[in-house]
Amino acid sequence: MRSKRATARAGVSMAATLPLLAGALALGIPAAHAADGPGRVSLAGTKPAWATAHADKGAASDSSQVAARVYLAGRDAKGLAAYARSVSDPHSASYGKYLSAKKAQSRYGATKAQVTAVTTWLKSAGLKVTGTTQHYVSVTGDVAAAEKAFGTQLHNYTKGGKVYRAPSKTASAPAALNGAVLTVTGLDNAPHKARHADQLPPPDAVFKNSGPFSSYYGSNIASTLPDAYGTKIPYAVQGYTGKQLRAAYGAGKRTGKHVRVAITDAYASPTIAFDAATYASKHGDAAYSSGQLRQVLPKKYTKTEECGAAGWYGEETLDVEAVHAVAPGADITYVGAASCYDDDLLASLNKIVDGHLADIVSNSWGDIEANQTPDLAAAYDQTFQFGAVEGIGFYFSSGDNGDEVANTGTKQVDTPANSAWVTAVGGTSLAVGKGDKYLWETGWGTEKATLSTDGKSWTGFPGAFTSGAGGGTSKTVAQPYYQKGIVPNALAKANNAAGNRVVPDIAAIADPNTGFRVGQTQTFPDGTEQYSEYRIGGTSLAAPVIAAVQALAQEARGGKAIGFANPSIYAKAGSKAYHDVTDKPTGASGLAVARVDFANGFDAADGQVVSVRSLGQDSSLKAVKGYDDVTGVGSPAPGYVDSFSRR
Questions:
Q1: Which residues pair with 458 in a beta bridge?
Q2: For residues 372 and 539, which has the higher predicted lDDT (pLDDT)?
Q3: Which pLDDT score is estimated for 646?
Q4: How many C-beta neighbours within 10 Å does residue 558 have?
Q5: Strand 293-296 to strand 331-337: parallel, antiparallel, or no bridges (unpaired)?
Q6: Are 181 and 247 part of one and the same domain?
Q7: Residue 518 in contact with residue 534, Cβ under 8 Å?
Q8: In whole angstroms, what is the distance from residue 92 CA to residue 108 CA?
Q9: Does 13 have pLDDT greater than 70?
Q10: What is the pLDDT averaged over residues 338-355?
């Protein structure tokens, strides 16, 4: 998966400063606006946790420029959250009674009068309105005008060795607006952007896997290499194909026909049509029909260098090819963001909701929870709620760094996967055997050790943790109703006696050592651009695979949208609809595969690196019987797809 923001926020737990907001976020309802001086109401969560008195470096210059977005609460925020819940709950009389995008907006969106009032207020403070949508009003202006508008001084604060601007107290809006403002973003100027993930090699430089390989799990045993966990181990697969994944997750004859799946990422691969068609042809997937793959792109891109735009091409390629491989009949709409920043990623999600471009949305990006701010969380949740009332479900990668301790020093989950309004997708290591037979899965967690110089042992076996499926207990989001009674209290109450959201909800293949083969146009050392293939993984793979499985399930329902799926997913917990994934599925003391990689990532000119990669070793997270914080309720079993037809 990709991570939205490159710069980690200061190590201050938001839970300590936001006790009232956590429960509100779980229900998707903005926290109550407390009085903030005569005639004003506060916009909860707009002062970031890192803007402390200790870090305060004084007032920002009045002439410094601010670019902000004022998100609109709409005419009935509580009603929106309530209907989003009831329409998604199989036990509710409103279940499945979705609204059209137009009707959802007319019932819950902002009125023209509210937009006018908000615009007038902002202009009167001296800010310039640069754009207006049904979701927000964007403005620019100097610090003095922003301070006047939002009732707070803007100060400079140290954060991670740098200095950023932020409100010195929670921002506020005039009470006369009658709650028309949901929140404001942009008052702090700390980075809110994406960074590259280790699982995705950049497409601007070719990447190839070396061999030997297994064609299916266990087909090629590394007999000349040292034992691991007391036995000979197989070479890693060259990369599973759609045929193998469809068999593993019970696709049967379903193809997802006429179900539209959307994919969001930043930017857009200029060769996606060629790459996707070539890959499908080479691997026996159905050819794309006219219009089956289309893109919805912004008029212009921004921050391309800062965000490493070319690095996102591989993400789009993986997502598109994985969805088509598992659900070859589904229609795919790729919605590219103008940059890797939150506001642009959120705008892509809103395009899908506003135009109801799809019923299922795969999102292989996110960030650590400590980097999320409540103002952005509220804006995201509002979009997810609008999606829910329209019958749109959002699927987010749970992360590639396990409990995040090795990455950040702090145990935490990822966001937006932590939202109570999305389906968080965890990751597994998958063993598909001869004849495409499902053998087993473990929770994805990798420890790596390299071959000793004399070739007789693994140096420091089993080695250090390198990557694994994200999961754990949120520190900011209260436990949603659908997890109660299913998620063990030891997990739900790990950070809060009242119970918090636990991630993930469901899982699928993610381990790059048992990964998926993709085909992409890459730049070779001689400067030519050529199509080539490589194995890849991460929860960037798990999310589109689950999105594709959901397309199969929607087809099984006669095409009727599943919508926000978590209540239905948890209603089946413990049933034969799932593979109950555990870390030692074979009973052996440990599992591992051998990998041989080119030292330079392309050819053998600089030698090869031989390593052993342990399976089922995900930092402090463990896949156990029943619900767990690596794989959720499990991965889809053959009965999963058709179980939705009985709703």
A1: 451
A2: 539
A3: 63
A4: 7
A5: parallel
A6: no
A7: yes
A8: 20
A9: no
A10: 95
Give the Cα separation of 644 and 554 in Å (integer): 7
Residues 248, 130 share a domain:
no
Cα 35 to Cα 39, 51, 171, 436, distances in angstroms: 8, 21, 11, 62
Residue 559, pLDDT above cutoff 60 = yes
267-288 average pLDDT score? 96
Q: Judge residue 162's burial from the number of C-beta atoms within 10 Å of its C-beta, 0-12 exposed, 13-18 middle, 19 or more buried.
A: exposed
Tell me the C-alpha distance between 534 and 208, whole Å: 5
Whether the upstream peptide bond of residue 585 has omega within 30° of 0, thus cis, is no
Residue 5 has pLDDT above 50, yes or no: no
Regarding whether 180 and 114 lie in a shared domain, the answer is yes
Beta strands in 186-316 (DSSP E): 260-266, 293-296
Whether residue 295 sits in one domain with residue 161: no
| 612: helix, strand or coil | strand
Task: Please give the helix or strand (H or E) that residue 571 lies within, else none.
Answer: helix 566-571
Question: What CA–CA distances, in Å, run from 80 to 114, 133, 384, 452, 503?
Answer: 17, 18, 10, 60, 24
CATH number at residue 365: 3.40.50.200
Full domain range(s) for residue 387: 242-646
Residues 469 and 572 in one domain: yes
Rounded-to-integer distance, Cα 95 and Cα 144, Å: 49
Q: Which of 398, 420, 364 is nearest to 566 (CA)?
A: 420
Helix H or strand E encompassing 425: strand 423-432
Distance from C-alpha of 613 to C-alpha of 201, rounded to nearest angstrom: 19
- Establish if 217 belongs to a structural domain: no
Please name which of 70, 69, 66, 68 lies closest in space to residue 165, comparing C-alpha atoms: 66
The whole-angstrom separation of Cα 311 and Cα 267 is 9
Pairing mode, strands 438-443 and 423-432: antiparallel
Cross-strand partners of 451: 458
What whole-number distance in Å separates Cα of residue 236 and Cα of residue 232?
13
Identity of the amino acid at 170: T
Beta strands 464-468 and 445-450 are antiparallel
Q: Is residue 164 part of a domain?
A: yes
SS3 380: helix
Is residue 222 assigned to a domain?
Answer: no
Same domain, 119 and 254: no
**Is there a single domain that holds both residue 176 and residue 312?**
no
Element (H, E) at 139: strand 136-142
Tokens 């490589």 belong to 534
Element (DSSP H or E) covering residue 185: strand 181-185
Single-letter code of the amino acid located at 187: L
Give, as one character, the DSSP assignment of residue 620.
T
Residue 435 has pLDDT above 70, yes or no: yes
| Continuous segment of H or E residues that includes residue 348 | helix 342-355
**Domains identified in the chain, total number:** 2
Please check whether residue 208 lies inside any domain of the structure.
Answer: no
In terms of Cα–Cα distance, which of 2, 45, 103, 604 is closest to 312? Answer: 2
Contact 33, 179 (CB under 8 A): yes
> What DSSP character marks residue 31?
P
What is the 3 state secondary structure string of 63-123?
A: CCEEEEEEEECCCCHHHHHHHHHHHHCCCCCCCCCCCCHHHHHHHHCCCHHHHHHHHHHHH
Count helices and strands (H / E) in the chain.
17, 30
Cβ(259)–Cβ(296) under 8 Å?
no
